[in-house]
Amino acid sequence: MISDALLETSTVEARILVVDDEPRLLRSLVDLLEEQGFIAVPALGGRAACELLTREAFQLVMLDLRMPEVDGHQVMQFIQDRKIETPVIVVSGESSFTAVSRALRRGAEDYIKKPFDPEELLATVGNVLQKQALAWAHRNVQMRLEKSEELHRYIVNTSPDIVFMLDREGRVCFVNRKIEALLGYKPSELIGRHFRHLIDEQDVARGTYALQDPAISAENPRTFEIRLKTRGSRKANRYFEITAFPIGDDSGQFLPHEIHRSNTSDPCIYGSARDITERKEAEAFINFQAYHDLLTRLPNRALFKDRLMLAITQAQRNRQKLAVMFLDLDRFKVVNDTLGHAMGDRLLQAVTQRLESCLRKGDTLSRFGGDEFTLLLPAISTHNDARKIARKLISVLKEPFQLGEHEVFVGVSVGIAIFPDAGQTMDQLIQCADIAMYHVKAGGKDGYRFYSETMSIGTANRLSLERDLRQALVNKELCVHYQPQVASDTGQVVGLEALVRWQHPERGLLYPRDFLPLAEETKLITELSECVLDTACQQMKQWIDGGHRTLRLAVNLSPLQVDHPRFVQNLIAQLRAINFPPENLEIEITENVIMNDLEQISRKLQELAEHGIRIAIDDFGTGYSSLNYLHRLPIHTLKVDQSFVRGIRSGEDGACIVNAIVAMAHGLRLDIVAEGVETDIQLAYLRNLGCQQVQGFFYGPARPASEINELLGTRAPIQAVV
C-alpha cells in the first residue's frame, strides 16, 4: 500500500496543463495552481494544448470546452486517439446536461462550472490527482508482481546454483537443471530419491544433522558445507555450500528422526547448493602456501615453530626429551653461483628427498630458508637417537648429485639441541642448534655437534672477533709466514708456502685455525686471500731478484676467490703489477673446489697454465682422489695430506696410502710434496719412495720473512730442528 506521504508528494509536484482561450482567466487559473505548489503550464487555445500534449507529459489537464478553431471536445478526442493516459477536468461556462454528459463520455474525470469556487476547484484537482496516483501505483505493483514472478522463474531455471526442494522425509521433490551441469544427474533421475544418496559418505552425518537442527527457520536458514557425489567415478566429488530452510508453518517437523506414516510429496524444505570447489581448492592452496615452502614442499619456518611448540608441550607433560637439528648445506653456494639458481633449486629438491628418506614417522623436516633446514625429532629417549639420525643425514648426502650433465657434491653441517638440556623454549632450542651448527662449520664442516653451554661463550667471542678481523684488514695487522719446501735428497729449500698470521693487538699472534673459518663464513676470505697473495708475491719478488731465481712461492687460494668470474684476469693483473714471474708461482687448491664445477675450473686452470703458473692439489687423498680430473687438468704437484704422513709407521694404513699416491704421481709424471713431516723416520721413508719434496715441523714451523732471509742467505742445506 502506498503511504499518504508518498501520494502527497506525487500530487503536489504534479504538472498540470491549463487550457483556455481567455488569457486573463487562463492567467488567474495558473496563478491559483502555482500558489498551491503545482507546476501549471498554460495553453492558449486547443491547438496549443494538442501541441504541448504531443511534446510533454502531464499528470492532469484542466480544459475549457468553448474555444475557437479547436474546442475542448476535440482536445479530449485527441487525447483518446493518441492514448495519452492523462485525466481531464473540464472547467467551462456551459452547464447543460448535454454538455456535461458529452464531456464525461469523452473521458473527463470531473466537471467544474465557471465561474468556479477556488476551494472547490483545488479540492477537485487534489481528488483527481490522488485517484490517478493510486491507479498508477496499483498498475505499477501489478507490473512488478508479474515481472517478479517471471524473474523468479528465470532465476530458478538459469541459476548458477542448484535449487532443490525436499519433502518431509527428505526425498527430492524438485531440482533445477543446473544439477546436470555440475554433478551429471538429470533432474528426473533424482525426483523421489532421498537426498543422502547425493552426499559424500564422509559428510552424510553432518548434512543430516544440519537439516535436523530444531533452530532452523525461514528467518534463520541453515548454511553448511558438504561434498556432493558426481555421477560415475571419473570425476572427483565437489564441495557445495548448502543453504536450506523450511516451507510452511510446521517448520520444526521436517526431517524428523522417525519416518512419518504420511507419504506426502509436498515440498517441506527449500534450499540452494552453491559450488565452492574452486574456493575450497584455493583456500587449501593458500593454507599450504602459508605453511609450506613451495620449492621443496616442506613445512616452512612458521609451521615448524608451531609443531615444535606442540612437541615441547607434550614433552613437558610426558617428561620426555626431544631434539632440534639445524642443518646447513656445505658447498651449496658454489653450485648455486656456478650453475645458476635453476640448478640450485633442483639440488635443494634432490637434497630434500634424501633427507626425508632418513626420517621417522612423526619427525618434521623444514626448510628454514636458503640452504638451511631444521629437523624436529619428538619423543627421543637419549642423545644417541639424535646421533644416529645425524649420521644418517650426513651419510646420505655424501653421494654425488646428478644435475643434468653436472655431477656435484654437497655436505651438511648439523647442530643439535636437546630439550630440556639446551633450552626450555622454542627460540632457545633453535638458537642453540644454530650455534652448534656454526661450531661444526668452524671445525671443518660436514659433521655434527651437540650444543653445550661453552658454545654460547664462543659465539659472543665470534662477534667481537669478526669486528676485529674487519679492522685488521684496514690496519694491515695480517702478516705472512713462510714454511720451507725442501728437496728430500739434498735438503735444499726449493719453495716456500705462504701462510697467513694475524698479529692481534690484544690476543697476540693468531693462527689460521683461529680466524679463517670465520673469514669464510663472513665472506672476508676473498679480501684476506688477496692481501696474503699480494704481500707474499712482493716479498718473493725480492728474493728472486736477490739471486734465488728458481725459488717457488706456494699460495693457498680460497674457493670464493677461485669462483670469481674474473679470477684469472685479476690474478694475472696482480702479478704484472709487480712484475712477478708467473713460473715462480704455484697456487694450491683443494679437490672440493675442482669437483664443484669441473668444467669451469678446468678452463680457468688451463688459462693459468698457459701463463706459466703451476697448479698444486692440496690435501690430496682426503677428497675424491679422482684420476679423471688428474688426467684432464694441468696439474703439476700433489700435496700428500699430513694425516697420511703421520701414519708412516710399520704396518699402518697411512703408509699404504702414501705409497699409492706417490706411485700414482710418478705414473702421471707429477711432483710430490709431503706435508707434516716431523721425524727422520718419515723423511727417510718418503725419500726412499721417491717423494721429491717435503715440508713440516721437522724443519721448523713457518717463519717470518726476516728469518727466511737468513735461511736463504746461507745457501746451505736446511737443518732439522731438534
UniProtKB/TrEMBL annotation:
The keyword Metal-binding does not apply. Residues 462-716 form the EAL domain. Gene3D superfamilies: 3.30.70.270, 3.40.50.2300, EAL domain (3.20.20.450), PAS domain (3.30.450.20). It comes from the Bacteria. Residues 320-453 form the GGDEF domain. Residues 222-288 form the PAC domain. Pfam families: EAL, GGDEF, PAS, Response_reg. It comes from Marinobacter halodurans. PROSITE patterns: EAL, GGDEF, PAC, PAS, RESPONSE_REGULATORY. Residues 15-129 form the Response regulatory domain. Residues 148-203 form the PAS domain. The modification 4-aspartylphosphate is found at D64. This is EAL domain-containing protein. Keywords: Phosphoprotein.
